[in-house]
Specification:
With about 750 residues, this protein is α+β, with helices and mostly antiparallel strands. Helices cover about 35% and strands about 15% of the residues. Strands 10, 11, 12, 13, 14, 15, 16 and 21 form an 8-stranded mixed sheet that branches. A 5-stranded antiparallel sheet has the order 5-9-8-7-6, covered by helices on one side. The longest helix has about 30 residues.
Length: about 750
């Protein structure tokens, strides 16, 4: 063989072809375990010496015998009959490149079939698409997977082209409609980048994102349809679920109300459940206070859950009953309260306390069904509504001392201070009926001084995840949570070694420390006068009454009462109400709800399946009526806190916390007597009255058309050159012992 001879070799998984000076020999390799590399070397050596088929066949036979001796019995190497001519076994000489091109084409087609759109190289020649949008989606997938930034360079009805954003890069692709195949096909593709990768993806623009949003919307619709189907299955099983509840929990009150349809079927309306251990335990050992509130269910069907929650001896929530309704209206709230009235034997409400937010429908229902019950309103909700109009920081500092006023005298003093500062806000606050949220007017039978409806808010938080589930799954999750709560707290209560629950003991010990600052003067057998600082209080041990009203509301002796009891050589713990006994705390969690079997074990009632309720349209605020927001909120940027209503010069801001701490440490803490209402007492519950504005200052939620108006009070954007009103002193009172702490005065910042 001469030096000018040309040797070409082509190999794939199953075929080997050697070509010397346009003369070709093709050999099939039918064993994947054969060492192809060694075979190529040996065949090349034979072919270079002599291009004869007999030698090749002999060499193949030798290779096969070597492999069989090594234990590989699957070797099968043979000469391709298509490349042999006659019986002499001589190799066929081909003067053209047709067979070579056929070999290349077969390998290209075979390798192209192994490509996948989800795996590299993502794009290749002769790749077909159903339309141009599919090609653009695949091009975007290439960009996101390879981190090479390419963009469309040409886009027409029947052709698309893309190039790399790097000007010096040779990468490009061209795809157009192929008429014979009736598909789009890649006809030009240069897969070569001469630069590094980057994180940009300019193809990910608004139009592409919009197409993804369409896909997401379709996926959401599919998921919602699946949820609706699940809801349909579970609503159809409600009759069986109700029967299982009655089987497993005797004397349970589980009631389903349906609406008859014209075709004879029943549609779900409402569901109420109250377990017998919960209601009997509440009537026997819990305090006579109930928190009522509702929460939205996170369904496509737009239902709501109403719940009644009580308090145990340790001041923790104790669920009583719950119901699923359509909306919170007068009718459904009255229906729910009436069910509670029958289960809990509330009568007309005498001796019971209801606490809720200021929802008009709930207020109407309680006044109709329980006319004699004490109905407290959540002070936090009242403060939030009041701040929408009077969003200044000073107004809030007047509000909470009014809420925590222990006596009517303190209430009148604090209201007078607010009236002197801003008479308009004073008049608006009086319209909210302070007797429903001020401590000075609370009754003593509830043994609770709460001014906020934390009972219901805490319960709604615990069932947050359950509200996302279908109807039966949600009811079962709430029931299981109740079982876990009773079991866990029962174990904790049985470990308590004190006479009273931890929460009551904490208040009692704090009052004992404060009692050391008092002195007592005896007036009668059970009547005493307690002096603390410049204030004095009347204490009657027989009626368990103190003029500070703290003992009356909490049913735990206040510092004045503890001092009198100790001076008479009595044990102050004997005067704590029985509601806080550890024995009552243990009895609260003695009885638990019974377990319920799974749906496969339910007894079938055979009733007509209940249809899912109709979808309720969401209530939207009319566009021409803007919602009045709080001072720090923005209508245009709902997720951002604006500077209005929160400034850095605020002494109670987080930035000034160290200054506030040092100031509190350097000052002497006023005693409880300092909070007593006296005409010239500068350390009363509320800040001293300071001459303030004569008109209300609105928060950020101004009504339409009034943003740029100049108010007479100098507030808002039209402040002009009027000097700002002086900031009043600020103080807070402890909710337990009326102690004033963290006092700040504008003269001593």
């Amino acid at each position: 063989m001469e030096a000018r001879d040309e040797i070409l070799v082509k190999i794939n998984k199953k075929k080997l072809m050697v070509k010397i000076n346009k003369k070709k020999l093709m050999v099939n390799i039918n064993n994947k375990k054969l060492m192809v590399k060694n075979l190529v070397v040996k065949i090349l050596m034979v072919v270079i010496n002599q291009m004869k088929q007999s030698i090749v066949v002999a060499f193949m036979e030798e290779i096969r015998q070597q492999e069989m001796r090594s234990g590989n019995t699957e070797v099968a190497v043979e000469v391709n009959n298509a490349d042999m001519n006659g019986t002499d076994g001589e190799a066929v000489a081909v003067d053209t490149n047709e067979e070579w091109e056929t070999f290349n084409h077969e390998e290209t087609v075979r390798s192209r079939k192994t490509y996948s759109k989800e795996k590299p190289p993502y794009l290749w020649l002769m790749q077909t698409f159903n339309n141009g949008e599919e090609f653009k989606d695949q091009l975007l997938r290439y960009v996101l997977k390879t981190n090479y930034d390419v963009i469309l360079d040409k886009w027409e009805r029947n052709r698309l082209a893309a190039i790399c954003t790097n000007e010096k890069c040779d990468w490009r692709i061209y795809c157009s409609f192929e008429k014979p195949k009736h598909k789009w096909m890649v006809k030009t593709y240069v897969d070569k980048h001469n630069h590094g990768k980057n994180s940009k993806a300019r193809m990910l623009k608004q139009g592409v994102v919009g197409s993804f949003e369409v896909v997401c919307q379709k996926a959401r619709r599919i998921a919602l349809n699946f949820v609706i189907e699940t809801q349909q299955d579970q609503f159809a099983m409600l009759w069986d679920y109700q029967k299982e509840l009655h089987r497993s929990n005797e004397r349970i009150h589980a009631e389903i109300t349906t609406i008859p349809l014209h075709d004879g079927k029943q549609r779900f309306d409402k569901f109420y459940v109250c377990f017998e251990p919960l209601r009997e335990t509440w009537k026997r050992v819990c305090r006579p206070i109930i928190g009522l509130d509702g929460a939205f269910l996170k369904w496509e069907l737009k239902r709501e859950i109403l719940a009644a929650v009580g308090k145990d001896a340790d001041n923790r929530i104790y669920p009583i009953a719950w119901a699923i309704v359509k909306v919170e209206d007068n009718e459904l709230w009255s229906w729910f309260v009436d069910k509670l009235k029958d289960d809990l034997d509330l009568g007309f409400g005498n001796g019971f306390t209801i606490i809720s937010d200021m929802q008009k429908r709930l207020i109407n229902a309680v006044s109709d069904v329980l006319p004699n019950a004490e109905h407290r309103h959540c002070a936090r909700h009242i403060s939030a509504n009041w701040k929408k109009v009077y969003g200044e920081y000073e107004h809030e500092q007047y509000f909470w001392p009014i809420v925590f006023s222990g006596s009517e005298g303190d209430y009148r003093y604090n209201m007078a201070a607010l009236e002197k500062y801003d008479k308009f806000s004073h008049e608006d606050l009086k319209k909210t009926e302070p007797k429903t949220w001020c401590r000075a007017f609370f009754s003593s039978h509830a043994a609770c001084e709460d001014v906020c409806n934390n009972l219901s808010e805490s319960f709604n938080r615990t069932i947050k995840d359950a509200r996302k589930m279908p109807v039966i799954d949600m009811l079962e999750e709430i029931r299981r949570q109740t079982m876990k709560r009773i079991s866990k707290r029962g174990e904790k209560a049985r470990k308590c070694i004190t006479r009273f629950a931890p929460h009551a003991m904490e208040i009692f010990e704090a009052n004992c420390k404060m009692s050391k600052l008092c002195s007592v003067i005896k007036s009668g057998e059970n009547l005493f006068e307690v002096v603390e600082g410049r204030g004095s209080f009347t204490v009657n041990l027989l009626y368990r009454h103190c003029a500070s009203n703290q003992w009356n509301i909490t049913r735990i002796p206040c510092p004045h009462a503890i001092h009198v009891i100790t001076e008479n050589n009595h044990d102050p713990e004997d005067y704590i109400d029985k509601y806080f006994l550890t024995t009552n705390w243990i009895a609260t969690y003695m009885d638990n709800t019974a377990p319920v079997n799974g749906d496969r074990l339910w007894e079938r009632t055979g009733k007509e399946p209940i249809q899912i309720p109709d979808k309720r349209k969401s209530r939207e605020r009319p566009k021409k009526y803007a919602r009045i927001l709080e001072a720090h909120k923005s209508s245009s940027q709902p997720h951002k806190v604006i500077r209005h209503g929160r400034t850095n010069d605020d002494p109670w801001s987080i930035q000034n916390a160290p200054k506030r701490y040092k100031a509190a440490q350097s000052q002497s803490t006023p005693t409880v007597s300092a909070s007593q209402s006296t005409p010239n007492d500068p350390s009363a519950t509320a800040p001293p009255a300071v001459a303030g504005p004569s008109a209300p200052k609105r928060g950020s939620g101004h009504p339409r058309g009034s943003r740029n108006k100049v108010h007479d009070n100098g507030g808002g954007r039209g402040r002009g050159s009027q000097p700002p009103s002086p900031r009043p002193p600020i103080c807070f009172m402890s909710p337990w012992n009326n102690q004033v702490f963290d006092v700040w005065h504008p003269d001593n910042p």
